[in-house]
Specification:
Arc Repressor Mutant, subunit A; mainly alpha; globular; single chain; three-stranded antiparallel sheet; DNA-binding transcription factor activity; 117 residues
Length: 117
């Protein structure tokens, strides 16, 4: 995993070449993490951690974001006091063409089928 650069507030992220399919699939296998990814994909921009209304504790939310970041699914950066999250779509599409779109489409179909969002 890439070492943090710059300030002590920089978070470590895997380089594109270090992103592994099994880590991405594991990160996307959790319903709450998949919800985060769906919201990021729908918004198309960076969203703060506080934007997400997850039905878990703050520490569990932090864990879910860390799993997504360490898998290379999202990039997290501090902007002032807010931790911003962005989907690493270019990296994921470059490494695994069609994977993210397929997962997002399947998740949307499932949400309709189950009557959830």
């Amino acid at each position: 995993m890439a070492a943090p650069t710059g300030s002590s507030r920089d978070l470590p992220h895997p380089q594109r070449a270090e992103i592994r399919l099994e880590a991405v699939l594991h990160a996307l296998s959790d319903p709450l993490r998949l919800q985060v990814v769906r919201e990021l994909a729908a918004d198309g921009d960076e969203l703060s951690c506080s934007h997400f209304d997850l039905p878990v504790t703050k520490s569990t939310t932090t864990h879910h974001f860390r799993v997504l970041r360490e898998a290379g699914v999202i990039r997290q950066i501090y902007r002032g006091t807010a931790k911003m999250n962005g989907l690493r779509r270019d990296d994921l599409d470059g490494l695994f063409p069609g994977l993210l779109d397929s997962v997002l489409a399947a998740a949307a179909r499932q949400a309709v089928r189950l009557g959830s969002r």
